[in-house]
């Protein structure tokens, strides 16, 4: 975020008896669209206990007040911190697949419709190739897919920097049909878990079921490399993404977006609340109309001001 967008960042560390008890990286954002705020990375606050969480929150809220910001967001944590002055939104969840029983069991746990769509993709000759060297081929397709959804991308330089800084923790899986790139996704690893992060497939190829093959090959990739868990990533309850991810048979886990308000009286809209706002619908409609080259130029400028949507 610092190198690509020039964002101001803060790295908070809670220490107890000389040992690290918690961390909270923050990004400082000023935006005419969504206000002036500090945000955590997805995953929220990482703390050993409530005392460490309180210490991190106290420092973070101090930074908010000192900067004259409107609010602080702890994004998509899997733990709900019971701290005063934090408002909690539970609009989003994730699904986590346990890989330990083996691929055959994982496949049996999938819904019948998901298995059928996967067979469709395999029958039609789709294949997935692994390697960040394919980033120059994947990215233009990903950017076009995001433009068609009305979503700005962080830009090629952002992904190039990620793969450079974390070569052992990032993998790129790209879906091909013959020699045509249909889409793909970046996955990140941390300890015993693989997390689905950025992914996109061109809508005109949906009938070939490339998303189903991409997710299956992500499962295979994670299992081959000895990981225990695969986190399919955030989705809003009862959305199309929710239905798709549910079909893979993973465990539903609640995500918590917790907000501290300073300069405003109402928490910023997320999920369906945001999608129902007239300004948001207009933005999405206009973004879909942009020429791809223009969207590529403007995308990183927009992402600097709303890094995680």
Commentary on this structure:
The mean pLDDT is 94. The chain has 309 residues and is of the alpha+beta class. The chain has eleven helices and 15 strands. The strands form two sheets. Strands 7, 8, 9, 10, 11, 12, 13 and 14 form an eight-stranded mixed sheet that branches. Strands 1, 2, 3, 4, 5, 6 and 15 form a seven-stranded mixed sheet that branches. Helix 4 (112-123) crosses helix 7 (210-224). The chain folds into two domains: 2-90 and 255-268, 3-Layer(aba) Sandwich (Aminopeptidase); 94-253, Gcn5-related N-acetyltransferase (GNAT) (Aminopeptidase, 3-Layer(aba) Sandwich).
Number of helices: 11
Order of helical and strand elements: HEEEEHEEEHHEHHEEEHEEHEEHHH
Class by helix and strand content? alpha+beta
What is the approximate shape? globular
Element layout with pairings:
Elements: H1 2-5, E1 8-16, E2 19-31, E3 35-40, E4 46-47, H2 50-67, E5 71-77, E6 87-89, E7 92-98, H3 103-109, H4 112-123, E8 126-130, H5 135-149, H6 156-165, E9 170-177, E10 180-190, E11 193-201, H7 210-224, E12 229-231, E13 235-236, H8 240-246, E14 251-254, E15 256-261, H9 271-275, H10 278-289, H11 292-305
Parallel strand pairs: 3-5, 11-12
Antiparallel strand pairs: 1-2, 2-3, 2-4, 5-15, 6-15, 7-12, 7-13, 7-14, 8-9, 9-10, 10-11
Helix pairs in contact: 4-7
């Amino acid at each position: 975020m610092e190198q690509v967008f020039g964002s101001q960042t803060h790295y908070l560390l809670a220490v107890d008896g000389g040992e690290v008890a918690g961390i909270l990286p923050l990004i400082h954002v000023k935006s005419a669209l969504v206000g002036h705020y500090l945000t955590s990375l997805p995953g929220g606050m990482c703390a050993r206990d409530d005392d460490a969480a309180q210490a991190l929150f106290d420092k973070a809220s101090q930074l908010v007040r000192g900067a004259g910001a409107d609010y602080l967001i702890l994004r998509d944590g899997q733990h709900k911190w019971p701290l005063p002055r934090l408002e909690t939104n539970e609009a989003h969840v994730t699904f986590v697949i346990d890989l330990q029983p083996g691929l055959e069991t994982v496949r049996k746990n999938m819904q019948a419709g998901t298995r059928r769509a996967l067979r469709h993709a395999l029958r039609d000759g789709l294949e997935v190739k692994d390697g960040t060297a394919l980033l120059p081929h994947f990215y233009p397709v990903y950017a076009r897919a995001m433009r068609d959804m009305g979503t700005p991308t962080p830009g090629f330089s952002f992904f190039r920097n990620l793969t450079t800084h974390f070569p052992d923790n990032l993998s790129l899986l790209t879906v091909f049909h013959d020699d045509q790139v249909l889409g793909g996704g970046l996955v990140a690893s941390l300890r015993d878990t693989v997390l689905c992060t950025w992914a996109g497939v061109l809508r005109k190829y949906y009938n070939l079921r490339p998303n189903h093959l991409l997710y299956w090959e992500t499962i295979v990739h994670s299992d081959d490399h000895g990981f225990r868990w695969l986190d399919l990533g955030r989705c809003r309850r009862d959305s199309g993404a929710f239905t798709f991810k549910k079909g893979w048979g993973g465990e539903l886990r609640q995500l918590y977006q917790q907000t501290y308000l300073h300069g405003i009286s109402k928490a910023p809209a997320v999920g369906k609340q945001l999608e129902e706002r007239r300004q948001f619908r207009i933005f999405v409609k206009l973004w879909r109309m942009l020429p791809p080259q223009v969207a590529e130029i403007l995308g990183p400028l927009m992402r600097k001001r709303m890094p995680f949507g």
